[in-house]
Design a protein that fits this description.
With 237 residues, the protein is of the alpha+beta class. It folds into four domains: 32 residues; 74 residues, no CATH class; 62 residues, Antifreeze-like/N-acetylneuraminic acid synthase C-terminal domain (Type Iii Antifreeze Protein Isoform Hplc 12); 59 residues, SH3 type barrels. Helices cover 18% and strands 35% of the residues. Strands 1, 2, 3, 4 and 5 form a five-stranded antiparallel sheet that branches. A five-stranded mixed barrel has the order 9-10-12-13-14. Helix 1 runs antiparallel to helix 2. The chain starts with a helix and ends with a strand.
Protein backbone atom coordinates (compact mmCIF):
# COMPACT_ATOMS: atom_id res chain seq x y z
CA UNK A 1 0.00 0.00 0.00
CA UNK A 2 2.85 2.45 0.90
CA UNK A 3 4.51 1.79 -2.46
CA UNK A 4 1.25 2.65 -4.23
CA UNK A 5 0.90 5.90 -2.30
CA UNK A 6 4.51 6.89 -3.08
CA UNK A 7 3.95 6.25 -6.75
CA UNK A 8 0.78 8.34 -6.72
CA UNK A 9 2.58 11.26 -5.05
CA UNK A 10 5.25 11.20 -7.72
CA UNK A 11 2.67 10.88 -10.46
CA UNK A 12 0.64 13.80 -9.06
CA UNK A 13 3.45 16.28 -9.88
CA UNK A 14 2.68 15.85 -13.54
CA UNK A 15 -1.07 14.95 -13.59
CA UNK A 16 -4.36 16.72 -12.68
CA UNK A 17 -5.74 16.44 -9.14
CA UNK A 18 -8.92 14.58 -10.26
CA UNK A 19 -6.94 11.70 -11.70
CA UNK A 20 -4.89 11.42 -8.51
CA UNK A 21 -8.04 11.23 -6.35
CA UNK A 22 -9.41 8.51 -8.62
CA UNK A 23 -6.30 6.42 -8.13
CA UNK A 24 -6.55 6.84 -4.36
CA UNK A 25 -10.15 5.58 -4.44
CA UNK A 26 -9.15 2.48 -6.42
CA UNK A 27 -6.32 1.74 -4.01
CA UNK A 28 -8.69 1.94 -1.03
CA UNK A 29 -11.49 -0.19 -2.54
CA UNK A 30 -10.32 -3.70 -1.48
CA UNK A 31 -10.09 -2.63 2.15
CA UNK A 32 -13.52 -0.93 2.11
CA UNK A 33 -15.26 -4.02 0.72
CA UNK A 34 -13.79 -6.34 3.34
CA UNK A 35 -16.41 -5.43 5.97
CA UNK A 36 -16.96 -7.86 8.87
CA UNK A 37 -20.79 -7.87 8.46
CA UNK A 38 -20.82 -9.42 4.96
CA UNK A 39 -20.88 -13.00 6.26
CA UNK A 40 -23.73 -12.33 8.73
CA UNK A 41 -25.85 -10.45 6.19
CA UNK A 42 -25.41 -13.00 3.42
CA UNK A 43 -26.04 -15.99 5.71
CA UNK A 44 -29.15 -14.37 7.21
CA UNK A 45 -30.66 -13.52 3.81
CA UNK A 46 -30.03 -17.01 2.46
CA UNK A 47 -31.48 -18.60 5.62
CA UNK A 48 -34.68 -16.53 5.52
CA UNK A 49 -35.19 -17.07 1.79
CA UNK A 50 -34.96 -20.82 2.35
CA UNK A 51 -37.25 -20.81 5.41
CA UNK A 52 -39.88 -18.61 3.71
CA UNK A 53 -39.91 -20.37 0.32
CA UNK A 54 -43.28 -22.00 1.09
CA UNK A 55 -45.06 -18.71 1.83
CA UNK A 56 -45.94 -17.82 -1.75
CA UNK A 57 -44.59 -16.07 -4.81
CA UNK A 58 -41.92 -13.34 -5.03
CA UNK A 59 -40.44 -13.95 -1.59
CA UNK A 60 -38.23 -11.05 -0.50
CA UNK A 61 -35.95 -10.43 2.49
CA UNK A 62 -34.87 -7.00 3.74
CA UNK A 63 -32.43 -6.69 6.64
CA UNK A 64 -33.41 -3.80 8.92
CA UNK A 65 -30.49 -4.14 11.35
CA UNK A 66 -27.10 -2.47 10.81
CA UNK A 67 -25.00 -5.62 10.77
CA UNK A 68 -21.81 -3.57 10.44
CA UNK A 69 -22.12 -2.84 14.17
CA UNK A 70 -22.06 -6.52 15.12
CA UNK A 71 -18.86 -8.24 16.30
CA UNK A 72 -16.93 -10.31 13.77
CA UNK A 73 -18.62 -13.65 13.10
CA UNK A 74 -16.92 -16.65 11.57
CA UNK A 75 -19.01 -19.43 10.00
CA UNK A 76 -22.37 -17.80 10.85
CA UNK A 77 -25.25 -20.18 11.59
CA UNK A 78 -28.63 -18.34 11.60
CA UNK A 79 -31.63 -19.72 13.50
CA UNK A 80 -35.15 -18.64 14.43
CA UNK A 81 -35.71 -18.02 18.17
CA UNK A 82 -39.39 -18.93 17.62
CA UNK A 83 -40.84 -21.83 15.66
CA UNK A 84 -42.84 -21.24 12.51
CA UNK A 85 -42.40 -19.93 8.97
CA UNK A 86 -40.92 -16.40 9.10
CA UNK A 87 -43.13 -13.64 7.71
CA UNK A 88 -43.41 -9.91 8.25
CA UNK A 89 -41.03 -8.54 10.87
CA UNK A 90 -38.79 -11.25 12.28
CA UNK A 91 -35.79 -11.62 14.55
CA UNK A 92 -32.99 -14.00 13.55
CA UNK A 93 -30.30 -15.29 15.89
CA UNK A 94 -26.82 -15.98 14.52
CA UNK A 95 -24.30 -18.29 16.20
CA UNK A 96 -20.60 -17.94 15.35
CA UNK A 97 -17.67 -20.31 15.60
CA UNK A 98 -15.24 -17.73 17.04
CA UNK A 99 -17.17 -17.05 20.30
CA UNK A 100 -20.30 -18.05 22.21
CA UNK A 101 -22.15 -14.75 21.85
CA UNK A 102 -25.34 -14.84 19.77
CA UNK A 103 -25.85 -11.99 17.31
CA UNK A 104 -29.41 -10.88 16.56
CA UNK A 105 -30.55 -9.47 13.23
CA UNK A 106 -33.92 -7.88 12.48
CA UNK A 107 -35.46 -8.38 9.05
CA UNK A 108 -38.68 -8.12 7.09
CA UNK A 109 -39.92 -11.07 5.01
CA UNK A 110 -42.44 -10.39 2.26
CA UNK A 111 -44.23 -12.69 -0.16
CA UNK A 112 -47.13 -12.40 -2.58
CA UNK A 113 -49.95 -14.81 -1.74
CA UNK A 114 -53.46 -15.30 -3.04
CA UNK A 115 -56.61 -16.31 -1.17
CA UNK A 116 -60.31 -16.75 -1.83
CA UNK A 117 -62.81 -13.90 -1.52
CA UNK A 118 -66.53 -13.55 -2.17
CA UNK A 119 -67.24 -12.58 -5.80
CA UNK A 120 -70.62 -11.18 -4.75
CA UNK A 121 -72.66 -10.49 -1.63
CA UNK A 122 -73.54 -13.78 0.14
CA UNK A 123 -76.24 -14.20 2.75
CA UNK A 124 -75.77 -16.07 6.00
CA UNK A 125 -76.80 -19.71 5.60
CA UNK A 126 -76.13 -19.87 1.83
CA UNK A 127 -74.22 -22.79 0.43
CA UNK A 128 -71.13 -21.82 -1.56
CA UNK A 129 -70.74 -22.66 -5.23
CA UNK A 130 -67.82 -22.06 -7.60
CA UNK A 131 -69.37 -18.90 -9.13
CA UNK A 132 -69.41 -17.25 -5.68
CA UNK A 133 -65.63 -17.40 -5.40
CA UNK A 134 -62.91 -15.05 -6.61
CA UNK A 135 -59.19 -14.51 -5.93
CA UNK A 136 -57.37 -11.71 -4.13
CA UNK A 137 -53.58 -11.23 -4.01
CA UNK A 138 -51.70 -9.43 -1.23
CA UNK A 139 -48.53 -9.54 0.83
CA UNK A 140 -48.51 -12.43 3.29
CA UNK A 141 -48.54 -9.98 6.22
CA UNK A 142 -51.96 -8.70 5.05
CA UNK A 143 -53.54 -12.10 4.44
CA UNK A 144 -56.61 -12.45 6.70
CA UNK A 145 -56.39 -15.04 9.44
CA UNK A 146 -57.63 -18.52 8.38
CA UNK A 147 -58.12 -17.33 4.77
CA UNK A 148 -58.73 -20.24 2.38
CA UNK A 149 -56.45 -20.81 -0.61
CA UNK A 150 -58.20 -23.66 -2.45
CA UNK A 151 -61.75 -23.79 -3.91
CA UNK A 152 -62.20 -27.32 -2.53
CA UNK A 153 -61.98 -25.86 0.98
CA UNK A 154 -65.04 -23.67 0.33
CA UNK A 155 -67.35 -25.18 -2.30
CA UNK A 156 -70.31 -26.92 -0.68
CA UNK A 157 -69.74 -25.24 2.71
CA UNK A 158 -72.38 -23.03 4.36
CA UNK A 159 -71.65 -19.40 5.21
CA UNK A 160 -72.04 -18.62 8.92
CA UNK A 161 -72.14 -14.84 8.51
CA UNK A 162 -73.09 -12.38 5.79
CA UNK A 163 -70.28 -11.63 3.34
CA UNK A 164 -69.89 -8.56 1.15
CA UNK A 165 -68.17 -8.66 -2.22
CA UNK A 166 -64.40 -8.93 -1.83
CA UNK A 167 -64.47 -10.23 1.76
CA UNK A 168 -62.06 -13.09 2.47
CA UNK A 169 -63.45 -16.60 2.91
CA UNK A 170 -62.24 -17.86 6.28
CA UNK A 171 -62.32 -21.45 7.37
CA UNK A 172 -63.61 -20.61 10.84
CA UNK A 173 -66.65 -18.85 9.35
CA UNK A 174 -67.85 -21.72 7.17
CA UNK A 175 -69.41 -25.02 8.16
CA UNK A 176 -70.46 -28.28 6.61
CA UNK A 177 -74.17 -28.44 5.59
CA UNK A 178 -76.24 -30.06 8.31
CA UNK A 179 -77.13 -33.69 7.72
CA UNK A 180 -78.55 -34.12 11.22
CA UNK A 181 -81.02 -31.64 12.73
CA UNK A 182 -81.87 -31.09 16.36
CA UNK A 183 -85.18 -32.63 17.41
CA UNK A 184 -85.37 -34.96 14.43
CA UNK A 185 -85.00 -38.74 14.35
CA UNK A 186 -81.54 -40.06 13.65
CA UNK A 187 -80.11 -43.53 13.11
CA UNK A 188 -77.24 -44.64 15.34
CA UNK A 189 -74.87 -47.37 14.26
CA UNK A 190 -72.78 -48.95 17.00
CA UNK A 191 -70.02 -51.25 15.92
CA UNK A 192 -67.26 -53.23 17.53
CA UNK A 193 -65.27 -56.38 17.05
CA UNK A 194 -67.69 -59.00 15.82
CA UNK A 195 -70.95 -57.04 16.25
CA UNK A 196 -73.04 -54.22 14.79
CA UNK A 197 -76.20 -52.64 16.26
CA UNK A 198 -78.57 -50.10 14.67
CA UNK A 199 -80.96 -48.03 16.79
CA UNK A 200 -83.10 -44.94 16.43
CA UNK A 201 -82.80 -41.85 18.60
CA UNK A 202 -83.53 -38.13 18.74
CA UNK A 203 -80.77 -35.72 17.72
CA UNK A 204 -79.96 -33.18 20.44
CA UNK A 205 -77.91 -30.84 18.21
CA UNK A 206 -77.26 -30.10 14.56
CA UNK A 207 -74.29 -31.56 12.74
CA UNK A 208 -72.62 -31.92 9.37
CA UNK A 209 -70.38 -34.68 8.08
CA UNK A 210 -67.66 -35.43 10.61
CA UNK A 211 -69.32 -33.47 13.43
CA UNK A 212 -69.94 -34.97 16.85
CA UNK A 213 -73.67 -35.09 17.69
CA UNK A 214 -75.53 -36.26 20.82
CA UNK A 215 -78.69 -38.32 20.58
CA UNK A 216 -81.25 -39.38 23.20
CA UNK A 217 -82.33 -43.02 23.07
CA UNK A 218 -85.91 -44.27 23.87
CA UNK A 219 -84.75 -45.36 27.34
CA UNK A 220 -83.44 -41.85 28.06
CA UNK A 221 -79.78 -42.70 27.67
CA UNK A 222 -77.70 -40.13 25.75
CA UNK A 223 -75.10 -41.33 23.26
CA UNK A 224 -72.63 -39.41 21.15
CA UNK A 225 -71.69 -40.28 17.58
CA UNK A 226 -69.96 -38.90 14.51
CA UNK A 227 -72.07 -37.91 11.51
CA UNK A 228 -71.27 -39.97 8.42
CA UNK A 229 -71.94 -39.09 4.76
CA UNK A 230 -75.47 -40.56 4.97
CA UNK A 231 -76.48 -38.54 8.00
CA UNK A 232 -76.19 -41.41 10.50
CA UNK A 233 -74.33 -41.35 13.81
CA UNK A 234 -71.44 -43.76 14.11
CA UNK A 235 -70.94 -44.70 17.76
CA UNK A 236 -67.68 -46.35 18.76
CA UNK A 237 -67.16 -48.67 21.74
Amino acid sequence: MQLILNAIRAFSLARPLGLVLGLLAIAATPTALATPDDAIAQATRHFLMTQAASLGDDVGVELTSDTSRLPECRSPQPFLPRDGVPQGRVMVGVRCSNDERVRYVQARVSASVRFLVASTAIKRGERLSADMLDWERADVSRRPRNALNAPSQAIGKVVMQRLVKGMALRGDRLRQPYLVHRGEAVTLIAGGEGFSVTREGEALNNGGKGDSVRARMPDGKVLRGQVDARGRLAVSY
